Amino acid sequence: MMAKAEDFGFGTQIRKSPYFEATVRWGAKAFSVYNHMYIPRDFGDPEQNFWNLINDAILCDVAVERQVEITGPDAARFVQMLTPRDLSKLAVGQCKYVLITNADGGILNDPILLRLAENHFWLSLADSDILLWAQGVAVHSGLDVTIREPDVSPLQLQGPKSGEVMRALFGDGIMDLKYYWLRRVELDGIPLIVSRTGWSSELGYELYLQDAARGDELWEKIMAAGQPFGLKPGHTSSIRRIEGGMLSYHADADINTNPYELGLDRLVNLEAEADFIGKAALRRISATGVSRKQVGLLIEGAPLTGPNTTFWPVLKDGAAIGKVTSAIHSPRLRQNIALAMVSVQHAAVGTVVEVVTAGGATRATVVDRPFYDPKKTLAAA
Q: What's the pTM?
């Protein structure tokens, strides 16, 4: 029997997305909480969801990617204060993957930054309270900015057929939208920002709805347009994002993780004139080096039956040297793959270690990450 929204018995203290009723109607079976909002995490078989994503296309409710909107005469200066990435060449209509760092160089979030106008920015968030951080930073900044959460709820349309679905929805003109650029569009009067971005490492788009009342209508229009191309309702794929080495905040990074531990030096510009938060700390870390690094692991043994739900210890000669942060079985690679944080002495490719999984100690080998399509040729095509 098909579930109905009321079957879940959720209260009002956790928000529901504008697509909540539609996702339940289309088969969502379980939810988790992200940015104080419910997100669908189960449409049946996660392996089938993966194949739907990499062979055709899936539509995901990611309204939990809440937006922090920064406007005002000093908006550009303020946004640069929040991130160590150099934004001096960020054009209107462009997006960038950025890190938000604190005074110790710790990562508070890894959002997509969208520049909608000269003095109008959105931070499209991973799971942490950057609205509160940004408002707090603004209080004594001396800068003229307004910081709020707007009525914006993104969907992700991801997979190799996503471009054809977008063409069916918006016409041929949408096909020249470049990777990490955005555009204002309307769909039968529904106001949207569309970007060539997504959390899948596949060709994909995000559609930012700017009127929550139109959520159900938008979902149904996209599903109808996608039917000839095999579009299925889905959820962000743990398999594909780990294959692509994409971070999940709170799992692979947190407030005690710095960019250098993740190999994200390219997102830190210590030579920039801007005095961003954490600059002095990141300069020290850059000079002294790090004691641990993120690596990829291939874990031997039977296929994992799902993602890890705890941090698995990583051992070398019986001593703890780190932890597995994200692990999954990739049916395409036919291997158990994982992201792990380990001491630098044991981070070299080819190092053999042990991982204490839920089923016991298992041999694993350090490898390069990402595990698939390292140059992001699929997403950037």
A: 0.96
